[in-house]
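step 3/5: co-fold with pyridoxal-5'-phosphate
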Amino acid sequence: MTPASEASAEPRAGAVLTIDLDAVARNWRQLAARAAPARCAAVVKADGYGLGAVKVAPRLFQAGARVFFVAHLEEAVALRAVLPGEAVIGVLNGLIAAHASVYLAHDFVPVLNHLGEIAAWRDEAGKAGRALPAYIQVDTGMNRLGLDSRETARLIAEPARLAGIDVRAWISHLACADQAGHPMTAVQRTRFAGIVARLPPAPASLANSSGIFRGSDLHFDLVRPGCALYGVNPTPEAGNPMASVIALDARILQVREAPAGGSVGYGAAHALARDARIATLALGYADGYLRTGSGRGFVTIAGHKAPIVGRVSMDLLTVDVTDLPEPLCRPGGWARVIGPDRGVDQVAADAGTIGYEILTDLGARYQRRYTPIG
Ligand SMILES: *Cc1c(COP(=O)(O)O)cnc(C)c1O
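step 4/5: write tokens
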């Protein structure tokens, strides 16, 4: 017989992360409609921006996505196991030549980022006796990944370097698309169009999430949204057009009276100017609630805002519940830390970072629930 305590629906974890896969699918459809007639891929690197690539990607396939990008080879291997064979899986970080057989065995499409990778993939094609698929990235100003301008010029002059390579798309990446009207976006677009026109014909792909919203001249043939799928605002200067995807609820461990003149937490960083009630929640920086968010923003308890006070600890967060009706805030209750009221972008702003980092830092200790957000 199962003891009642083990059969309980009560979460054992200190915090529960709810992930709304229907909202991810809605976001993809919205982006795909905006980008059409360009095709819309889905970037699911970093474990689907922290939300679980093996859950997110099949849901996106169901919604219509056929092209997926990850950063690492191992991420691609994990994805292949959960996606139908017709799904195209691109590996942004390129080709690890020593593991070329893995790319071949799983039909991965490496993003070749320099001439050395192109040569190595061409050699593999020779050995395999067939053309091998690849995306090829050209740098248009980021100076991060992709052929630099000298390498690009050589490839244009010597297209035979591509013998045996089935170029699925020329790609490049925008540095400043999140900033409306940033001049670098137009510069990159013009450079990219000029480069693609001189290379052998293949589809072209430039736009990330924000790029999709900065004009259809950035869409080319394939767009590559990531963050917007997961509810991050791709147009930070305006309202968020994307559906909110996650909610994070933390357990209230203790509620205490804290007299005026005292302080809360490490460093005595929060001084109490009045008699207060402090609730302590079961999440901290070890769960990805960044310490730089100390003393900023609020959580919501039964619909009431409670300001975050004091430093974020490793496993604990303290909030001031003095102004909440007492019966609403009891040990064993729950506080909403991230949700439609205070989304990932706001949590990020309070911690001095970006929504991407909040998502990819989401804690391994959370109980994860894949269900619409209540
Ligand atoms: C991460 C990444 C994307 C997705 O960017 P978002 O800003 O999250 O939409 C697209 N392309 C490349 C090359 C990337 O590295």
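step 5/5: annotate
The first strand starts at residue 15 and ends at 19.
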